[in-house]
Design a protein that fits this description.
The complex is a heterodimer of chains A (about 280) and B (about 100). With about 280 residues, chain A is an all-alpha fold. In chain A, about 55% of the residues lie in helices and about 0% in strands. Chain A is built from 12 helices and 2 strands, in the order ααββαααααααααα. In chain A, helix 9 crosses helix 12. Chain B is built from 5 helices and no strands.
């Protein structure tokens, strides 16, 4: 494979940063955030890697450090290629910040944690051996820093000890079901969900709907928010979320369930008001 | 809960030994279902219930819609000032590297 970094754009004055698509790649990253079937690498992060013509293409696989654009990015960083660094910062900072906010409460603190992470990448890149992917390494640094800050914020309790943080109530209010002693249909819907398709056809596409969802997500208990964010919003597989948040598989599922159930109910209420 | 004797859903089940899944149970195991971690027998009960219950089919559909919508939430990136300061830090780092 031809070296990617510093070839096409790097030879042209003033175009170096465009090699990593400071404009185009970021625009594409934004577009891809809105698509459901955006490509994911093995770790579930949507990836947009440079190709040799200097433009960006989505790559499905970003597994091994050698022979991949990732390996070339690492080499670029070591060589001091600013375009490589810029590309990484623009590509991964939103996800890093979102993960940071799972640990710390203040936006400004999350911002600092992301900044510290990138500075740690610079001081550590020389020693980075590529045993894990760059992304895994990156998120590991972030997680460690964020935890340190969380301790300083006196949020010393780990996710696993927190439980669902909402008393573990039911996914749907018991009032929506027939009582357990009902002669024919115990525990069946007395008030079944109204089909969303009727009201939601256009509503799901509306900006306001997404705002309702975003607010709902932000207001979820911290541990639920972290899991739903990483699983559904970032698209991480379960085992990576467990590793990052130090959760058991079962605990992770409970938090995901609680969070999703709460969000569904928020949307249901919103669509009901809308109808 | 004990299955009652004369209900439509039991006819659909065709197996009196398996306890039918109630809607209230279904909404609690739906994530296990979607995650593929439900036991084989519970999965069969889930599917059997789904086949007879429009309310639960709608519920499952809503969960899938929710997951899809979650996936389209965009992330806020770092502040432009943070980005600028990172790029400055990068240049300082690069310059210190070349001096070594």
């Amino acid at each position: 494979m031809l070296p990617i970094i510093g070839t096409s754009g790097g030879d042209l004055p003033g175009q170096n940063s465009e090699t990593y698509g400071s404009g185009e790649a970021r625009a594409r990253a934004r577009v891809d955030q809105t698509g459901v079937d955006r490509p994911r690498n093995a770790s579930g992060i949507a990836c947009h890697m440079p190709v040799t013509n200097g433009r960006y293409e989505s790559a499905m696989v970003l597994k091994t450090a050698d022979h991949t654009p990732e390996g070339e990015l690492i080499e670029g960083l070591r060589r001091g290629d600013q375009a490589a660094f810029t590309w990484l910062v623009d590509t991964y900072s939103p996800s890093l910040k979102r993960l940071a906010l799972a640990f710390v409460s203040l936006d400004a603190v999350a911002e600092e944690v992301v900044q510290e992470t990138w500075l740690a990448v610079l001081t550590g890149i020389g020693r980075f051996e590529g045993r894990s992917s760059l992304k895994t390494w990156l998120f590991k640094i972030l997680t460690n820093r964020a935890k340190t800050r969380a301790v300083r914020e006196k949020r010393t309790v780990g996710f696993s000890e927190l439980g669902p943080e909402d008393g573990g109530g039911p996914a749907v209010s018991p009032e929506r079901f027939l009582p357990a002693d009902h002669p024919s249909f115990p525990g069946h819907w007395s008030s079944p969900p109204h089909p969303w398709s009727v009201v939601a056809e256009e509503a799901v596409l509306r900006r306001e709907t997404m705002e309702v969802l975003r607010r709902g997500l932000e207001n979820l208990p911290r541990s639920q928010r972290a899991v739903v964010m990483l699983r559904d919003v970032e698209g991480w597989p379960a085992h990576e979320v467990c590793a990052a948040l130090e959760l058991s598989e079962a605990n992770q599922r409970v938090l995901l369930h609680r969070g999703r159930s709460r969000l569904r109910s928020i949307l249901e209420t919103y669509f009901a008001e809308d109808a | 809960m004990a299955p009652s004797s004369d209900t439509d859903w039991q006819k659909h089940m065709g197996d009196d030994t398996v306890e039918e899944m109630a809607c209230q149970e279904l909404v609690e195991v739906i994530t296990d279902y979607l995650e593929g971690t439900l036991s084989k027998s519970d999965r069969a009960r889930f599917d059997a219930h789904l086949a007879t219950c429009p309310g639960c089919r709608e519920y499952l559909e809503q969960m899938r819609t929710l997951i899809r919508l979650n996936g389209s939430l965009t992330a806020k990136s770092i502040e432009p000032a943070t980005r600028d300061s990172l790029l400055r830090a990068f240049r300082r780092w690069r310059d210190s590297q070349t001096q070594l």
